[in-house]
Amino acid sequence: MENHSNVTEFVFKGLWGNKQIELLFFFLFLLCYLAVLMGNFVILLTITCSHLIEQPMYYFLCHLSVMDLCYTSTVVPRLIRDLAAARKHISYTHCMTQLFTAHLLAGVEIFILVSMAFDRYVAIVKPLHYTATMSRKRCNVLIVMAWGVGFWHSVALLLMVLRLPFCGPNLINHYLCDVKPLLKLVCQDIRVVSILVIANSGMVVVAIFLVLVASYILILYNLRTRSSAGRRKALSTCSSHVMVVVLFFVPCIYTYVLPAGSENKDKEISVFYTVIAPMLNPLIYTLRNVEMKVAMRKVWSRMSHSEFK
After folding, report:
1. Model pLDDT for residues 84-129, shown as the tens digit of each residue
2. What is the pTM of this model?
3. In Å, how far are 50, 170, 213, 302 from 102, measured between CA atoms?
4. Cα(63)–Cα(71) distance, rounded to whole angstroms?
5. Euclidean distance between CA atoms 285 and 293, whole angstroms
6. What does the DSSP 8-state code read for residue 110?
7. Closest-CA residue to 281 (of 16, 15, 37, 4)
8. What is the pLDDT at residue 112?
9. Which of 18, 62, 95, 286 has the most CB within a 10 Å radius?
10. From edge to edge, which strands make up the β-sheet containing 9-12?
């Protein structure tokens, strides 16, 4: 562990240097975090307490909501605390823990989104094989694979960072411990490591995004032969998923494709996938989905009746 012996803690620069602006955003991000908790809790309650849990799409949506809750809780509470704090510091151990946890949960979330796209592809392009292909056993295998791939990605990234020497400056120009801002503090040539980070995160995210785009192009192509009612129902579920994918992937691509030494708006852009996307996901999936709205009314009606008995 002698590589980082000169640095025992890091100090976050934060999003803004202005204290008044930070106090304003303290309340704004607190409201956003409460919205994330409430929105995802409503989705979990609605799906698990209704027949929707039997459908693969909503089974995956349940897992996506859990990931949103966990991922946001890894980043946002500390961000909220730091906005009100005079000194935004984090120990080396906690920094590495946040780096590992955030990338693990984000990796799992990405592959759950892939599983959801696969589910829609089979449902629309190969409807006769849907029940056999998307069995509960197959869905569980996809979830386990998502955790396996997410774990491999985050372990590889963590081992890469643990081997790097931090011997002087400890001011992170960010609000969380992420690999790119940490690389700027390393006291050795980071060109090779930067390429490895782009390969591990940036190129993987781009490749997955292109696969998702291709799958939805195929879905749209196959919808030509459907009735107008069938097209509307398929497009309502697919459009929600496309919006979630774009909200999550586009900021990630911007953040992780560019090299670590480049000057860009990483910390501002990362707000989209750490705060805004998890907050909007429940709204997108409930407001644009008729089945979810019907199930929500039934669940809340059932709960209100049981209270009055």
Report:
1. 887 888 999 999 999 999 999 999 999 999 999 999 889 888 888 8
2. 0.88
3. 31, 20, 25, 37
4. 12
5. 9
6. H
7. 37
8. 93
9. 95
10. 89-91, 9-12, 171-172
